[in-house]
């Protein structure tokens, strides 16, 4: 499985406008609805917010991976957002999040969802790559960086 099977330039928003967790999640859900097989935006939003209430998906070093399972998606769906200013996301290191990978999978699927999270975590652990993603100027750059990592061109 490759992340680039699920992420195209349409799945990336470089200038997130939200100033808090709820606004960022709402913005990412809107992007998900616009680009993926989603039947109900409100259901997705509630699923992600419920997951956040269980424990924040804000990691560290400026990254968050809000995710959930919901039957309002037909298949694993992933979108990426970047906030230049950063947003308080109850991250593990208590620092603002700048890079957001939102994913929603059907309740009947677990394999691809878990694989995608593992691949994202592997990518964002590398400081240079994480910084490249946060500083990207175009959606194409984000997709290209991820593709190059998956192809072993950059590490």
Q: How would you describe this protein?
A:
With 155 residues, the chain is an alpha/beta fold. It has a single domain (3-150), classed as Mannitol-specific EII, Chain A, CATH 3.40.930. Helix content is 41%, strand content 17%. Strands 1, 2, 3, 4 and 5 form a five-stranded mixed beta sheet that branches. Helix 1 (21-35) packs across helix 2 (41-54). The longest helix has 15 residues, at 21-35. The model has no long low-confidence stretch (mean pLDDT 93).
CATH topology: Mannitol-specific EII, Chain A
For this structure, the quaternary state is single chain
Average pLDDT figure: 93
- Give the C-level CATH assignment: Alpha Beta
The global form is globular
Largest sheet descriptor: 5 strands, mixed
Query: How many separate domains make up the residues?
Result: 1
Specify the number of helices.
5
Percentage of β-strand residues: 15-25%
Q: Estimate the helix proportion, in percent.
A: 40-55%
Secondary-structure element string: EHHEEEEHHH
Radius of gyration: 14 Å
Structural class: alpha/beta
The CATH architecture comes to 3-Layer(aba) Sandwich
Number of distinct beta strands: 5
CATH superfamily: Mannitol-specific EII, Chain A
Report a brief summary of the structure.
41% of the residues lie in helices and 17% in strands. The chain has helices spanning 21-35, 41-54, 111-124, 127-135, 139-150; strands spanning 12-13, 63-64, 67-69, 77-87, 97-105.
SSE order and pairing:
Blueprint: E1 12-13, H1 21-35, H2 41-54, E2 63-64, E3 67-69, E4 77-87, E5 97-105, H3 111-124, H4 127-135, H5 139-150
Helix pairs in contact: 1-2
